[in-house]
């Protein structure tokens, strides 16, 4: 895929709105305000990331500094139209910058993620939750399919049922007054304790994503973790 094709990556606009975030604590129950923004319609594919590496060889495996990529960086196979996984937060952010974009914030991702095909917020629908949890129950050792699932009400695809995704502020999702530093060997214990403050604890699908992201460092990567980009909308 050429660099020109990269520039034509499809973004869809999401209107400003409010969301009762799962991350809201007892002292902050008011819905969070989300400004209008644009989000990549699909996760970044392996073909797109390969084109990025041609233009930015400093991000290739074996050339990127260890501080920016762990040992598993880009160590995942798949078809060209499958999402690019095994990529660090640093590399994902660099890719988004190459498109004049950035990684979405958690609130932006959660706002887009809450929608189904017809409703901006389907999280109270048990059938919606059951469909997502059914994906979690499937074996994780099969090749990832191509991006391009059915769109939600905003036109965003593949937020569920395909991969996990990086967000810009992944390392602050479970921070509260009793959180410990990233160097603390008991950090995950406090991440788990922080989850007790979360609202909508029945939304296990979203809480699983939060737990995964909060356990990672920016240089980490996994075979099921991909990314997409977001952009500001000029006012």
What can you see in these coordinates?
With 235 residues, the protein is of the alpha+beta class. 27% of the residues lie in helices and 9% in strands. A three-stranded antiparallel sheet has the order 1-4-7, with no helix packed on it. A two-stranded antiparallel ribbon has the order 2-3. The chain has a two-stranded parallel sheet with strand order 5-6. The radius of gyration is 17 Å and the shape is globular. It comes from Pelomonas aquatica.
Summarize the structure.
The chain has 235 residues and is of the alpha+beta class. 27% of the residues lie in helices and 9% in strands. Residues 11-183 form the Sulfatase-modifying factor enzyme-like domain.
The largest β sheet comes out as: 3 strands, antiparallel
Count of individual helical segments: 7
Structural class: alpha+beta
> In which order are the strands of the major sheet placed?
1-4-7
Indicate the percent of residues in helices: 25-40%
Overall number of strands: 7
Strand content: 5-15%
Show unreliable segments. Answer: 1-7, 175-197
The rounded Rg comes to 17 Å
Mean pLDDT over the full residue set = 83
Along the chain, the helix and strand elements come as HEEEEHHHHEHHEE
Shape: globular
Gap from first CA to last CA? 32 Å
